[in-house]
Amino acid sequence: MVDIKRILFLTSNEGKLREAKHALEPRGYEIVSFVGGTNKVQLVEVQARDLVTVAQSKIEQAESYVGNAHQIDGVMVEDAGFFIDTYPSFPGVYSAHILESLGLEGILQLMHGRKERGAEFQSAIVLQIGSERFVAQGRCRGRLSEDVRGNGGFGYDPLFIPEDGDGRTFAEMSLDEKKALSHRGHAMARLLTLLEDRR
Ligand code: ITT
User: pLDDT digit string (tens) for 121-161?
Assistant: First the structure.
């Protein structure tokens, strides 16, 4: 069995990379990426309704990148999405595109005057180690804030108030606080358990 030390995280998102390092590096894994380098990651996101299918497809495209990274024991991808209860499955797998086109203020306008503000984040992580594949998922329930709040985090964080928190948005929390509550924090914890069980 391969001893896992070095994991290539194929992502173009610095926020996701920062949180993956924060979750996995204290547990003895080194997370490397191409973020900030010249080797840009271009994984096609298949049209699918669920994040696991999208993540599985990303990992299947990952092989072509592995040759460009040194001494990699495993390759990891993650697909995350934001889901607003009022609009089933939306923005979901289109989260990146919708955020880019509407912006945070545009999303707040969509929700203007609505009392029902429930929402959730979901994360699906796939880690491939040789022929072994690990799939870990996490979700976090909460609600949309009434305004854009906080300078931390990334993406939708300034709009999302997790239900197990104290009323602050993810963007108003430290990395540790977000990890304890978030979809990604839960998925990473699950992944660590799967890796420990493998030993
Ligand atoms: P990849 O290169 O890893 O695919 P991406 O930015 O396309 O990065 P996703 O498809 O996983 O990432 O995420 C969809 C969108 O949801 C994107 O706009 C993210 O910024 C946002 N998002 C993901 N996780 C988030 C989080 O923890 N907090 C806030 N927004 C998040």
Answer: 999 999 999 889 999 999 999 999 999 999 999 999 999 99
Q: Which of 3, 50, 79, 85 is catalytic?
A: 79
Please write the tens of the pLDDT for every residue from 39-79: 666 777 777 778 999 999 999 888 777 765 668 899 999 99
**Which residues, 6 or more positions from 20, have their beta carbon under 8 angstroms from its beta carbon?**
9, 11, 31, 76, 78, 184, 188
Instruction: For residue 154, report the phi and psi dihedrals to the nearest 5 degrees.
Output: -160, 175
pTM (predicted TM-score): 0.94
Q: Please name each of the domains of the chain with its CATH number.
A: 6-198 (3.90.950.10)
Kindly give the distance from the C-alpha atom of residue 1 to the centroid of ligand 1, in angstroms, as a whole number: 32
